[in-house]
Amino acid sequence: LWIHQSDNSYLLKTIGFQTQFEILRQYLLSTSDYELNGIDEKLELLVDIDFSDIFFTASGIGATRMKNISLIRLKLKPLTDLVEHKDYNDYVRLLK
Predict the structure, then answer these.
(1) 65 band by pLDDT with thresholds 50, 70 and 90
(2) Planar angle of CA 1, 38, 55, nearest 5 degrees
(3) How far apart are CA 27 and CA 21, in angstroms?
(4) DSSP 12
(5) pLDDT tens track for 85-96
(6) Distance CA 56, CA 26 (A)
(7) Measured between alpha carbons, how far is 20 from 93 in angstroms, rounded to an integer?
(8) How far apart are CA 18 and CA 45, in angstroms?
């Protein structure tokens, strides 16, 4: 996942590392895969998301957006949770 990111990717900045820990936490809560045998396959689902997009600003809002889009793509959170959110269309755009 990380080798596919550009130098401008927010996934490689502090907010990205926070997101990665949240992904790990949610993954462990939803599986019994404590040896992380299946996590690489899951993370491959994130490769085509452009984490350098301005939508993921280096801020608290950007961290929340990064966490949400990652969890949605990994099927650890439903997109319908954000249907009323002001950024819903951006989530849909980035998930295509």
Answers:
(1) very high
(2) 35
(3) 10
(4) G
(5) 999 999 999 999
(6) 20
(7) 21
(8) 18
Place of tokens 């299946």: 38
Distance of CA 36 to the CA centre of its chain: 17
Q: How many domains are contained in the chain?
A: 1
Residue 62: give the domain boundaries.
2-95
Cα distances (Å, whole numbers) of residue 75 to 27, 79, 80: 10, 9, 11
Termini Cα distance of the chain = 18
Mapping DSSP to helix (H, G, I), strand (E, B) and coil, where does residue 73 land?
helix
pTM confidence score: 0.86
pLDDT at 2: 66
User: For the chain, what percentages of helix, strand and coil (3-state, to nearest 5) are there?
Assistant: 60, 0, 40
Provide the pLDDT for residue 5.
75
